[in-house]
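Q: Sequence in, structure out?
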Amino acid sequence: MAEDCSEFFNRSDGHATLENGMDACLQAFDLDSDGKLSVDEFGALCRALFRDETGAPYPLEIKKLACMFSVFDTNQDGFIDSAEFQTCWSKWITPILRPITAFVIVDVQNDFISGSLAVCNCPAGHKGEEVVPVINSVLDSVKFDVVVYSLDWHPSDHISFVTNVANFPMHSSSKVSAEEAKVLDTVVFDSPVREQTLWPPHCIQESWGAQLHPDLKVMDEALTIKKGCNREIESYSAFFDNARESSTGLSEQLKQRFVTDVIVCGLATDVCVAATAMDALSEGFRTTVLEDACRGVNAEDIEKKKCAVAEQHGLVVDSAKAGAIAAGRDRPPELAYKLALDLAKN
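A: Exactly. Output:
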């Protein structure tokens, strides 16, 4: 029985339908046939569920296993009974096995590759154009449920442009004055009080610099999200402005399409990609960043942002894993843990 149930989620008939799959799953892991799952039986289920594409099991932390068990043991009697397992199956196991995945391609625009804010001229010295063939390869090889392209789309008088710094009132706490300000400085504006990193003018609406790189593959029926349109506030994320005062509508559009997972890539890792990934996590999407499909501004900040994504139970992986994660063939426990935590909040 143990050998059979360890391969349950790799069997072609194990979860053919939601109703039959749920019953078969409960029966397979209910080793003492008492109609419910103990912690140990749930652990066996998790060890069978959390496998990479080759079928190799992922290691599972005991504390996280106990936490996930408690999410579904809603009456806290030490077991997951059949009614509780129905929720576990429909809201947790099913999205793990059959994720609905959006591929969010962040700001792969001319200005960030060879224009006024090319990442090659930033401290990390990365070559932004290197993301294009990686992203194209992913698009060619993976069937995503939704593809999204985000665009920085600034008015010429945007608050982030160093050339406009004198046009906005400076707060007394700013360590850099308008007269001294230069690219990559951080100033503090007044009314409202906000920190702002200063950039050269870039991605101005309707300009060449704001266009997607010409070699980037653009999918039919993809969503396009334009951000940073308000002159008075920065907007790194494809979901919200930096103060979360206004939404781009992306979260709503993904939820309307029943998206469970978001895979993020693009430019720049430590700025707009990281902000998008963090907002995706906060919006309840299981989130993965494709490290080799991103390039960044500052090497130290890139590492910090990768750690921040991991701390919120997102993944940072190589693009070679994108297809298996998007299809539910690669099922890392961290994404399952993230989903369980979100279910506990609701």
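Strands lie at 101-106, 146-152, 186-189, 194-197, 223-227, 261-267, 286-295, 315-317.
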